[in-house]
Amino acid sequence: MQDTPLAITSPTENVSISEISGVIEILTKQGTAKPYLEYLRIEGQVRQRQYIGLDTTMKRLEKNKLLIEFKSSEEEVLANNPADYNDEREYRKDCDVHHRVADPRWVLRFNSKEERDCWARKIQDTSDLCVWLGRYKLGRLIAQSDGTTVVECFAQEDKADGRRKLLSVMKLIKANSMQQIRRVKEEIAIHQMISNPAKQHNNVLRMLDWHRQDGHGYLILEHCNGGDLHDLISENGMLDEQQQKRFSSNF
């Protein structure tokens, strides 16, 4: 057992945080993937990977240091590169670091206070996102365009008979620029306004939940099985007069 924390002096080169923007895609494909911090040594392929969970804690230290304490189980501690092994049992047998740390601790030292705080914010955002995503189960990819991804979204609680009813979708919007951030804020504000029960319209999809952080916005919207008006026009061309009248009266 190792009580002293792992000290890394150049985290921007040797440590990487799993891409937060890929959480939606990863969870959709694998179902159980978790965000993690990974330490890659300069020489050799030995590395350590610690998963970011609800119990991950941080403490800002002097001299631009950041203490990260993980609450990882033995199965979550990877001390070598599992990609080099076809069999997980073979990997664990040949792993050159056999010890397992019950509560691993990392100390990252940064070049500046701003850089340290930026990393702390990223890790906290990841933890917060995991808590929020824990309410839902994600299904197949519905649509994807530049900067926007839409996937099926189910409530975490399954029905008693094991079947799940698709009631909503999760919309992921990238917000890497000031213009994109403004767009996300405006879209959330508009959905909040039109999702007001007092002003709710049968032909307008409600926003059921939302979460926003640096770089991304996540919206839970009602699911429309029949598609939307844009899909109808794209597939069938211009609407005839009777169809236009029917849709206009509904609006």
TrEMBL record:
Residue span(s) of domain Protein kinase: 136-251
InterPro entries to which the protein is assigned, alphabetical: Kinase-like_dom_sf, Prot_kinase_dom
Record-linked PROSITE patterns: PROTEIN_KINASE_DOM
Domain of life: Eukaryota
Protein name: Protein kinase domain-containing protein
Pfam families according to UniProt: Pkinase (PF00069)
One Gene Ontology term of the molecular function aspect: ATP binding
